[in-house]
Structures are given as structure tokens and as C-alpha cells.
Amino acid sequence: MKDMRSSWYFRRGSKSRPSQIGWIIFGLIVAMFYFTRRVVVALSVGGWVDDVDLPVYNWVAEHQVAGLQAAAKLLYWWGSTPGMTATMLVLTLWLCWARKTWWPLATAAFAALGSVVLTIVLKRLVQHDRPVGLDPQFPPPESYSFPSGHTLNAAALIGIITYLAIVYGLYRWRWWLSVMAAVFVLSMGASRIYLGHHWVSDVMVGLLIGAGWGAVVAILHFFFVPRPALQARSGSR
Questions:
Q1: What sections of the chain are H helices per DSSP?
Q2: What is the sign, positive or negative, of the torsion defined by CA atoms of 20, 14, 100, 157?
Q3: What's this model's pTM, rounded to 2 decimal places?
Q4: Percent of the chain with pLDDT over 90
Q5: Domain ranges of the chain
């Protein structure tokens, strides 16, 4: 795995220091919450709402298609707590069985815990109201809108399971897995806007926070997981 450690910040063949890793994680967290703060400020003065959220909502309301509504509803149920829990359990338990280690399950559980906490805390802090929805038969949840929990959790969990699959045995498929993961997460975010359950700002911040948190968990796993677990996998490439 030394080849994967080589970058502009880590010298080839050198041992990474906790301070280096800490600065990378700190930078990710600062970037996530700086952007979130800027969006929250824009929401408070109405700029983002008038310039982006309302125009997109109105455009989507005028372009509703039955097939796209059905796909968006499927993604809604898939991205809900039962759907994502079942998906993550199946995938992580398969990785645990294939590689004879519980690290994939533990890592995914940690990522899930963090993403849920971030969603709940941000919703309660910002308390931004949802749009009314575009299908009277499928109203939005009663919780606050900002950020989109479906998008945040999908970005964090699908991101981390993709990373784990690559690290624990599917390295040769890394590009295909990454593309499929990106398409799924972006589709999840788009579905929340298409159903009228979230504003664009909710989805954008959910995507950023979820991807950032997933990256933090992946960095922690890569550099601090017991080395034999990763070395055994790397030898099969």
C-alpha cells in the first residue's frame, strides 16, 4: 500500500505522521463548515433563496414526469434509514466474510453514526423550513429541511463503502465503483429536489458535508487500521 500513500503531502516510502493526517482532516472539516456557514448566511438574508432555491423549485414543478417521479420515490425509500441500513449491512458483512475481518463493519458503523449526528445537529441549528412538496399524495417529512439527510447520508455511506470495497479486494474495479457511487449519490440528491422535499441549498450542503465526513473516515481507516488487514489485501492485487 505504499504506492497509495505517495502524494504531494506524503513522501514515497516515508512513514506518515499523525500531525500530517490531522492537518488534512482539519482542512476538510474547516472547508465543510465554512461553505455551510456561507450558505446559511445567504439563506438568512434571502439571497440564495431568491437566486437559486425558488427558481429551481418552480422549474421542477413545471417539469414533472410520471416515470421520474416513480424513480425519485424509489430513491427516497432506498435512502431512508431502513433502506440504507440494509444496504450497508449486506455490503459490509460481505466484505467482512470475504476478508475475514470486522473492520469494514466497524468503519461503516462509525461513518453512519457521524452522518446521522451531523444531520440531526445541523437541522436543529439552522431550522430551515422545507418546501411544500410537489405530489399531494407524497408529502415531505415533518423535520427541518437543511441539510438534506438523504443526500448527506448517501454521500457519506456510499462513499465509505466504495472506499472499503476498493481497499479490501476490488482495486481493479476502482474507477467503475467510483462512477457508480457518484451517480447514485447525485441521483439521490436530485430526487429530493424533484419530489419537492428539499431546496437546492439543502442538497448541496448535504452532498458536501457527507462527502467530507466520508473522506475523514476513510483517512482515519487507511492510516490507523491495523496494518496486517490491509497488507493481506494488497498482496492479492
A1: 2-5, 18-45, 47-48, 54-61, 66-78, 81-99, 103-126, 149-167, 174-194, 200-224, 227-234
A2: positive
A3: 0.81
A4: 46
A5: 23-234
